[in-house]
Amino acid sequence: MKKHLWTVLILTGSAGSLYAQDGQSRPLKMVAELSGSYKGMLPCTTCTGVEEVLELSYNTDTTGAYLLIDHYLGKNGKEITSASKREGEWIAVKDIYDGKACTMLVLNYDNSDKYLFYALTQQGTLLPLDSDKRPLYGDIKQGLTKLDAIIVNAAGCGSTMKEYGHLLHDDTQWQARAETFVSKVRDVHEFLAGIELNRKDLKPLNIKVTYQEPCHMAHAQRLTAQPRKLLKAIPQLQLVEMFESAMCCGS
């Protein structure tokens, strides 16, 4: 049987009242700020590593919901067991880690009286802690990093992913999570056109090209300028506009 990686602290009460008797550790109004997608590779005693994904969304200014997924990986990078999933509520509090004040995330384990702890480092990484507020993996201080974007290279898929908030707007359990997810979704052209590219290392490409727009990119996502901007960034490349380039193929 696989050894579970998490150490939990058995307490009573809900996540919101976890530190009710400690005036210095009451829930902080940082839930919206900290919400998002976090991902990292964590150590494992019986496999090559655990790819962990943590989705944080918010319900109020002090409480939120989370979904935690662990993928246990073998030597070939494939899952060796089914992914484990946990969900519940979370809060952020002020606490002490490594002798210094820090922001601590407290996750209620499946709405029971069990909790998981993460320390927010100065680098923005969430570091898993045990019940004594020490790094869960000892000197191996590996944690989860917040994702700035979820990049998609298929126009149709990206279009649907950006609609999750609308598709789940009546689902009280998933609506907030869907909105958090949607806020990160970017088409690959949209993402690259929005950052500062390293143009000095681009090699000249002395050719003439045209561009036909993917239907879901042009009509659903309204992305037309970004692909052209990337093409024009290539030295010596000549872009010739196609007549009715946005005409849908009908598929």
Please provide a brief summary of the model.
By secondary structure, the protein is of the alpha+beta class.
Topology:
Layout: E1 9-10, H1 31-34, E2 36-42, E3 49-58, E4 64-73, E5 84-97, E6 100-108, E7 114-120, E8 125-129, E9 144-146, E10 150-152, H2 155-161, H3 164-167, H4 175-182, E11 185-187, H5 188-193, E12 208-209, H6 215-220, H7 225-232, E13 238-239
Parallel strand pairs: 10-11, 12-13
Antiparallel strand pairs: 1-7, 2-3, 2-9, 3-4, 4-5, 5-6, 6-7, 7-8, 8-9
Distance between the termini: 49 Å
Give a count of the beta strands, DSSP E runs of length 2 or more.
13
What is the topology, as strand order, of the major beta sheet? 2-3-4-5-6-7-8-9
How many helices? The count is: 7
Order of helices and strands: EHEEEEEEEEEHHHEHEHHE
- Taken from the alpha-carbon principal axes, the silhouette is elongated
Radius of gyration: 22 Å
Low-confidence stretches: 1-24
Helix residue percentage: 10-25%
* Proportion in β-strands: 25-35%
Structural class: alpha+beta
The averaged pLDDT comes out at 81
Main β-sheet description: 8 strands, antiparallel, barrel
Please characterize this protein's 3D structure.
The chain has 251 residues and is of the alpha+beta class. It has seven helices and 13 strands. The chain has helices at 31-34, 155-161, 164-167, 175-182, 188-193, 215-220, 225-232; strands at 9-10, 36-42, 49-58, 64-73, 84-97, 100-108, 114-120, 125-129, 144-146, 150-152, 185-187, 208-209, 238-239. An eight-stranded antiparallel barrel has the order 2-3-4-5-6-7-8-9. A hairpin with a 5-residue loop joins β6 (100-108) and β7. The longest helix is centred in the C-terminal third of the chain and has 8 residues, at 175-182. It is elongated and about 65 Å long. The N and C termini lie far apart (49 Å). The model is unreliable at 1-24 (pLDDT under 50).
